[in-house]
Every structure is written in C-alpha cells, then in structure tokens.
Design brief:
Layout (H helix, E strand, L loop, with lengths): L1 H15 L5 H15 L14 H4 L8 E10 L5 E8 L9 E5 L14 E9 L2 E9 L11
Antiparallel strand pairs: 1-2, 1-4, 2-3, 4-5
C-alpha cells in the first residue's frame, strides 16, 4: 500500500507541475516510507549497540528527608520506613513509605534522624537502595 501511496503522490505532484528534481523525489520517498510504517535499516556491516549498555553509569542522586517512623516485623527486622521529604524534592507527597529489603541499611539510624537516601521502584513498591544519616537541613539554607 505504501508503494501505491508513493505513486499517487508522485502523480499528483506531476499534475500540478511540480517537477523540481531530487527534492520532490526525496519527499515522495519519505512520504511513502512514513505511510508504509517502514523502519530505518542499519547497514549490513553495522553492529547493533545497546544504548543503555553504552551509556556511562550516572552517580546516584540523594534525596534529603527526616525519618518519621520505622516498622519492624516479629523478628525485629526493619520492613518499612516512612520518610518526610523536603519540599524541594519535587516528589508528589511529602511523606512516603519505602520498603527496606536489607534491614542492615537502617542500622544506627533512629527515628527523627535526618537522612540522605536513594530509592527505586521495585516489584510495585518504593524500595530503599541506600540510606545514610546526615546533618539537619534548615529551611532557606542550601544543603548539598
């Protein structure tokens, strides 16, 4: 069907008297490929490269927060932690609950402590990947 559309487009241009050479041909071919839904094809000798594998790893971005509460299971292992985020974190809620997969992450971090943390969305839940205690970040002061 794409070839038919290309031919129809070319005949329309010819009837209108638009025969300006290569530009018209390029436009006709581009329109034909777009209509046909064609994907660009790599040259025969080109090796495919995974973009994610080629990109260098970015340094982690830490978010500042205050520990509101810590939930533990019957064995005393930390399972969830609630963190009150700073307003400039640009996250939709000021207090969020995070799952703790490794209870050793919360060792030595009491309730009410200021922390810097990183998290990922794993298995449908916000999950802490790292957390560390830090100095309090006062309002209207720059905290690095």
């Amino acid at each position: 069907m794409g070839v038919l559309m290309t031919q129809a487009f070319a005949s329309l241009l010819a009837r209108k008297g638009l025969r300006s050479g290569r530009l018209v041909i390029a436009l006709v071919l581009a329109a034909g490929c777009a209509v046909a839904g064609a994907q660009p094809v790599a040259p025969a000798g080109a090796a495919s490269v995974d973009v994610k594998a080629a990109a260098p790893a970015a340094p982690p971005v830490y978010t500042r927060a205050r520990v509101v509460s810590v939930e533990a299971d019957a064995g005393g292992n930390t399972t969830h932690v609630r963190l009150k985020l700073l307003p400039r974190a640009k996250l939709p809620f000021t207090t969020q609950t995070f799952r703790v997969v490794n209870p050793a992450l919360m060792h030595g971090i009491p309730q009410g402590a200021w922390v810097q943390f990183t998290a990922r969305h794993i298995d449908g839940e916000n999950t802490l990947t790292s957390i560390r205690a830090t100095a309090e970040c006062k309002r209207f002061e720059r905290c690095d």
